[in-house]
Amino acid sequence: MLPEGNRELRVRKDGALVQDDFRHEQYLIVNCDGKEILLSGCAHNGILNILDRYREIRERYPDFVISGFHMMKDGEYTEEDKKVIRQTARELQKMPTRFVTGHCTGIPAYKMLKEILGEQIRYLGSGEELDLSAWM
Fold first, then answer.
1. For residues 113 and 88, what is the distance between their CA atoms, to the nearest angstrom?
2. Residues of the chain scoring pLDDT < 50
3. Which run of H or E residues covers position 124?
4. Is 134 helix (H, G, I), strand (E, B) or coil?
5. pLDDT at 128
């Protein structure tokens, strides 16, 4: 199931605007010193959906995920939004994975994720350098 905010994103097909299915999105797996790193953009398909598919293919979870979580909102988060963010964090917490997120996750959502994930998640801002070796 697509995250709620993504149900509003459209693509032009045969001259009409239809809901984007995000099949065009790509993900990259990098193997570095025996560690698997999954790179994603905004995770429009939902980070949990992406990780479920990763596990189907790889029969394991990645060691690291570097991805936006597409949770940023222009206005206030509803109680339902907060519930979904916290549920997502609790599911991510079960994985032996460390997460690096930024841009489209949004600072308020990141703070909610961080409350649950603690040191399992980091924020990466534009222009910052990421050294995963210090986190391995």
1. 8
2. 2
3. strand 121-124
4. helix
5. 83
Q: What are the tokens at 102? A: 């930024």
How much is the pLDDT for 98? 97
Tokens 């961080």 sit on residue: 114
Q: How far apart are CA 80 and CA 86, in angstroms?
A: 10
**Which residue intervals of the chain are DSSP H helices?**
47-58, 79-93, 107-117
Asked if residues 25 and 104 have their Cβ atoms less than 8 Å apart, the reply is no
Query: How far, in Å, CA of 105 to CA of 86, rounded?
Result: 13
Per-residue pLDDT tens digits for 71-98? 988 889 999 999 999 999 999 999 999 9
Of 59, 62, 54, 56, residue with least CA distance to 26 = 54
Beta bridge partners, 98, equal 64
Residue showing tokens 């009409």? 16
Angle at 82 between CA 122 and CA 8, to 5 degrees: 95
Pairing verdict, β 98-102 and 64-66: parallel
pTM of the predicted model, to two decimals? 0.83
Look at strands 10-13 and 16-19 and give their pairing.
antiparallel
For residues 83 and 61, what is the distance between their CA atoms, to the nearest angstrom? Answer: 24
